[in-house]
């Protein structure tokens, strides 16, 4: 059983408490197509303001408290390595998102000037899974406190309903997560292509699509060029276009019997149980 929130705090001093970094990145989706006359989410500076106004360190330390770490981008730490040097992707790419209230206020002022609006009302869609409600409430507080004039209404629905609304693009902002299906950068970055079903937020940058295509087609047999092209693509989508706001990379906190042997977790799957056994 994975531990989150109060359970993680309660058992973190237990001798059997084990914490590992996972590969799911939790983030905020900005829908650039729905109700934008009210939300303003088609405005780049507003999205940049909302992204910079979230203190993700405080979120992970004081709200989640389960070992999750602030996300520095859409690609998680300890997932893939440079084919030449062996350096982790996050080390090579650096952080493409950061908490900066001063910068957020500057972006916000520009957004108000560009839109002619003094306030923005945003709906934040989340679901009823463990940890989602306190995270949504934290985001609501951060936006309303750091960006006066922003009002956030939280909409909590069952996870299946959230996924349906996501597919229909029937939301404004959304608390969601993405995890890998396989161990390659495309498992994350392909989801932001303009024609990707998983995009569902109206993000459409021709330059981004071209970078992803170039990495796949032109540099399919040139690993280092492919690597550097993906670094450029992530920076474009997250830092320059503010298509989404990365929040945190999950942690897997649990109580594990020390007699359980050959129990392994991988960055692209939760567990491997084939050879697990209890030592007597």
Automatic annotation (TrEMBL):
Main subcellular location: other
GO cellular component: cell envelope
Highest taxon listed in the record's lineage: Bacteria
Gene3D superfamilies in the record: Dipeptide-binding Protein, Domain 3 (3.10.105.10), Periplasmic binding protein-like II (3.40.190.10)
Keywords: Signal, Transport
Residue ranges of every copy of the Solute-binding protein family domain listed in the record: 8-197
GO molecular function: peptide transmembrane transporter activity
Example GO biological process: peptide transport
InterPro entries assigned: SBP_5, SBP_5_dom
SUPFAM superfamilies: Periplasmic binding protein-like II
Intracellular or extracellular location(s): Cell envelope
Homology family: Belongs to the bacterial solute-binding protein 5 family.
Name this polypeptide is given: ABC transporter periplasmic protein
């Amino acid at each position: 059983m994975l531990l989150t929130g109060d359970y993680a705090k309660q058992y973190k001093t237990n001798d059997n408490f084990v914490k590992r970094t996972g590969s799911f990145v939790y983030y905020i989706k900005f829908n650039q197509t729905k109700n934008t006359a009210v939300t303003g989410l088609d405005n780049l500076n507003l999205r940049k303001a909302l992204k910079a106004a979230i203190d993700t360190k405080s979120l992970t330390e004081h709200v989640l408290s389960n070992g999750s770490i602030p996300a520095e981008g859409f690609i998680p730490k300890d997932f893939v390595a440079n084919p030449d040097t062996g350096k982790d992707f996050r080390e090579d790419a650096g952080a493409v998102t950061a908490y900066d209230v001063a910068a957020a206020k500057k972006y916000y002022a520009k957004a108000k000037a560009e839109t002619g609006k003094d306030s923005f009302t945003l709906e934040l869609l989340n679901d009823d899974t463990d940890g989602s409600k306190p995270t949504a409430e934290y985001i609501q507080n951060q936006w309303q406190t750091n960006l006066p004039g922003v009002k956030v209404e939280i909409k909590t629905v069952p996870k299946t309903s959230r996924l349906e609304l996501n597919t229909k693009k029937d939301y404004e902002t959304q608390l969601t997560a993405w995890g890998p299906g396989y161990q390659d950068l495309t498992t994350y970055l392909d989801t932001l292509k303009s024609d990707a079903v998983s995009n569902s937020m109206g993000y459409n940058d021709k330059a981004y699509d071209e970078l992803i295509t170039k990495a796949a087609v032109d540099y399919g047999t040139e690993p280092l060029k492919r690597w550097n092209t993906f670094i450029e693509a992530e920076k474009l989508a997250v830092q320059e276009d503010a298509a989404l706001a990365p929040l945190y990379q999950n942690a897997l906190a649990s109580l594990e019997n020390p007699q359980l042997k050959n129990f392994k977790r991988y960055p692209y799957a939760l567990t491997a149980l084939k050879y697990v056994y209890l030592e007597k």
